[in-house]
Each structure stands twice: as structure tokens, then as C-alpha cells.
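Every protein is a chain of amino acids, and every chain bends into a shape of its own. The protein below has been through that process, and both of its lines are reproduced in full.
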Amino acid sequence: MKTLHTTRRTLRCLTMAAAGTLAMLSAGAQAQSNDTLAKIKQSGVISVGYRESSIPFSYEASSGNITGYSQEISNLIVDGVKKKLGLSGLQVKLTPITSQNRIPLLQNGTIDFECGSTTNNLERQKQVAFSNNIFIYGMLMLVKKDGGIKDFPDLKGKTVVTTAGTTEDRILQKMNGEAKDADKMNLILAKDHGQAFLTLESGRAVAFVMDEPLLYGERTKAKNQNDWVVVGTPLQTETYACMMRKDDPAFKKVADEVIADLMTSGRAGALYKKWFQSPIPPKGLNLNYPMTEGMKALYAHPNDKAIQ
């Protein structure tokens, strides 16, 4: 019996030791998988996600020409990574992303980071990390000027479009869940912002609910911009930031420092004027989107705080 007891105790010890070893290996693998800088240095490649139609943040102005306010910040982060690693050259692999697949593509390693029109909020922070914020905005709607829609209560029983996988998608679904049957909106979920605007412009929806600056961007696609207006009391105020993998402080530090330097040096003001108050490609139209007090405060005091 003594031998049997000793054997069982030995087996328990071995099992616990093995479990501990596996835990350490797992933690090590996780840390290694999230060491983006080491991955980039070893491969000589940085994988960057971009949006195809998030005007004026990240979009394809012409075939192969990815540009925009956020895209320029993305390019600066790439330069910051190159400098941090002491590399003379770095191959940039660009991958188109959507509101639905951006987090999975980041988590599975397809992209290393993205700067587009992704909201930095507490819910997403459970899955990913965010850089210093790059934009502050309100959640409004784009409607026909003479359509009679002035604010969100006017949408009761109406057909409304937004982009699938966005914060607006979640909030509108929540509003519907709390509304009486007669007041529920008929929600159309588009695959991207461009498709959402086409749904609005074709008359299949009376309002396109989205982030205010994106609505100004989509309005530039209209046959006549003056037919459309951005209206409403903001459902909430939120922030955009560049998105990266969790538990990778070294990579986040590079991105944060690049963004903070851009803002505190005054160069961010020129970047804002270029994309929100000047003609932009491909049509050379001007969004005429004034800088808010919130944006001025962000440029003066860069931070990564989520408002919601």
C-alpha cells in the first residue's frame, strides 16, 4: 500500500508539473504571437488593414491608391516601426477589411494593425487594443433634405440603413428591442458604407445612420450633394483609434508616440484641413467639415480613452 500511495503521489506531482509546464508554454506562445515588432523584424513585412470606402479616413480613391486621413496616420506608424527596428526597408502588405472581419483578421495574424474608422470602445477593448485616439465624432444620420426627417424620433416605423458590424448596428438593434412594435424601424444592414449610401440614394431607406464624418464623406458621392443633409441629435459621442492586438505594449507604444507627436507638433491640424476642409480625391469635392472643440482638445492632449 505504501508503494501504491507513493506512486499515486508521484503521478499527481508529475501531472501538476506537466500542467504548469503547459501553462508556461501557452503563455509564452501567446506572448510570442503578440510580439508584433519581433514578427515584423523577422519577416521584413508589416501587414496593414485598410478600408475600401471609409471616405475620408481610409479608402481606395483609384485602383491601388489607398488614401485618407487615417491612412496617412497608418503610413506614419509604419515609418515609426521601421525606425524603431532600425530597418532600411520594410515591405508593406495591404489587406482590405470590413466592419465584420477586421477583428478576426487582426486576431488570426492576417493584419498587424489597422487605421480606418474603427471605434475605440470598452466592449472592443475586451478583444483588441487601441492606440491613442485619432478622431472624435457624433453619431448622426444622412437624409434627403426635403424628406421630412429631422431627428431620430422621426424614424419610427421607417426603413433605415446602417453598416453591418458597426456601433450603429448595435445601437439601432437595441433601440428596436426597446420600442413598441409599431415604432420599430425596418433595419437594412449593408456590407459597407458605400453600399449603405446607395441604399439611401436609391430610395430604399429614408436615413443612413452612421458616424458624422463618414456621412459627410458619403455625401460627396451623391449626384447632387445639396440634396442631402446630415441631421439629428447625436445618439452618442465616440472616438476612432488604430486597432492592434491585445497584450502587445511595445507595438502600441510605437503607435501612441507617432500619433502624439503628430498632434502636439501641430502637424495634425494641417492633416485635418487637407482631408476635411479641402478638395479630396477622386472627385475633388470638399467636405467642409469644421473642426470641433473635441478635436481641438484631442490634438492638445492625445489619449487612448474610450468614451463609451
User: Anything to note?
Assistant: The longest strand covers residues 128-144.
